[in-house]
Design the sequence.
């Protein structure tokens, strides 16, 4: 069980770093009016575990803050992920006690 927690943390750290990098890169590309990162990619990184990092990065660098889809959708996604994490931990605690 300890190993799975370490892998999960490593995954979340890696996905969060990727989320920050992709969001910052998209902001830079937007300023240069160049090819942009598709919104689908931003959502994919968020769904894979980078929702908190994506949301915080967007707020800090003021990127896509006028897009309701992100400013309402990412907090909703974070709540769903938190609920799933809680349920997963709750079930594992019941099984291992």
Sequence:
């Amino acid at each position: 069980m300890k190993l799975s927690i370490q892998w999960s943390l490593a995954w979340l750290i890696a996905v969060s770093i990727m989320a920050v990098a992709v969001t910052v890169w998209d902001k830079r590309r937007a300023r240069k009016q160049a090819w942009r990162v598709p919104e689908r990619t931003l959502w994919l990184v968020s769904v894979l575990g980078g929702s908190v990092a994506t949301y915080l990065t967007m707020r800090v660098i003021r990127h896509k803050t006028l897009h309701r889809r992100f400013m309402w959708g990412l907090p909703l996604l974070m709540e769903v992920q938190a609920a799933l994490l809680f349920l997963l931990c709750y079930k594992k605690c019941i099984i291992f006690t």
